Amino acid sequence: MSSDTPGLPPHLRPFVLPYEEVEPIRSGNLDLYLPTSTPAPAVLMVHGGPVPRQREVRPPQWPAFRGYGALLAQAGFVCGMFEHGFVDDESFPAAQENIRNTAEALRADPRVDPERFGMWFVSAGGLFMGSVLADPSAWGVAAVAGTYAAPDDPDLEDPELLRATSTAELSDVPLLLVRPENDFEWIATASTELLERCASQRRAVEVLEVPGGHHGFETVDDTEEARDAIQRSIAWWGDALG
């Protein structure tokens, strides 16, 4: 694990893959990382949570999202990053509605090719992935990825929550799961359940394993395996939406 910045919390440590920075532009509630040519395919990043209101550095400023945003832009994508407002369990429904509205806004942006639109769920952002996988066409989604994403949380009691462990098998939209070897046990268990259910229905899921990796590996694991996983994730989007 990275030890060069021990005083920083893991999510605020430097991105482990060197990259050329891209400064996002503000559009509504979105930070947009733009490629040199548009219209272009787009990826909307969905962060995890809950992120307490009192936390000073908000998700759009976290090094992992700034790094992924720049890499996606340099690969020819419009990357949208935003804060959906999942600050506690009570805010979950409003956050989900915010995600849907933001996805519609990004697809409607003239710099975006709306037919080549994907969503990338990170950490507990994966709890929002189930509704997208249940009906990708309703979201206008052509591909979905989850990085150490939580397909389910047994402690979240919401009868209306569509859990990706149950919905992933319902569509054939391209789906990537990035799985660090040492992820949180509850996320690893739910991800395994999702994969087993999909396998039983012969539903294809691409899995990218990160040997020795931890939750938040992009700023936690200063290893070649972590850097390779970042690069392969970006390459997957090129195949899925290219």
- The strand count comes to 8
How much of the sequence lies in strands comes to 15-25%
Mean pLDDT: 96
What kind of assembly state do the chains in view correspond to?
A: single chain
Summed up, the helix count is 8
The unreliable regions are: none
Spatial ordering of strands, largest sheet: 1-2-4-3-5-6-7-8
Helix share of residues? 25-40%
**What separation lies between the terminal Cα atoms?**
34 Å
Radius of gyration: 17 Å
Shape: globular
**Biggest β-sheet, characterized?**
8 strands, mixed
Order of helices and strands: EEEHEHEHHEHEHEHH
Given the helix and strand composition, which structural class is it?
alpha/beta
Write a short abstract of this structure:
Helices cover 33% and strands 21% of the residues.
Keywords:
242 residues, 8 strands, eight-stranded mixed sheet, alpha/beta
Question: Would you spell out the secondary-structure blueprint of this structure?
Answer:
Layout: E1 25-27, E2 30-33, E3 40-46, H1 63-74, E4 78-81, H2 92-108, E5 112-122, H3 129-134, H4 136-139, E6 143-147, H5 164-167, E7 175-182, H6 185-200, E8 206-214, H7 217-220, H8 224-241
Parallel strand pairs: 3-4, 3-5, 5-6, 6-7, 7-8
Antiparallel strand pairs: 1-2, 2-4
Question: Your description of this structure?
Answer:
This protein is of the alpha/beta class and 242 residues long. It is built from eight helices and eight strands; from the N terminus they run βββαβαβααβαβαβαα. It has helices at 63-74, 92-108, 129-134, 136-139, 164-167, 185-200, 217-220, 224-241; strands at 25-27, 30-33, 40-46, 78-81, 112-122, 143-147, 175-182, 206-214. Strands 1-2-4-3-5-6-7-8 form an eight-stranded mixed β-sheet, sandwiched between helices. α1 links the parallel β3 (40-46) and β4 (78-81). The longest helix has 18 residues, at 224-241.
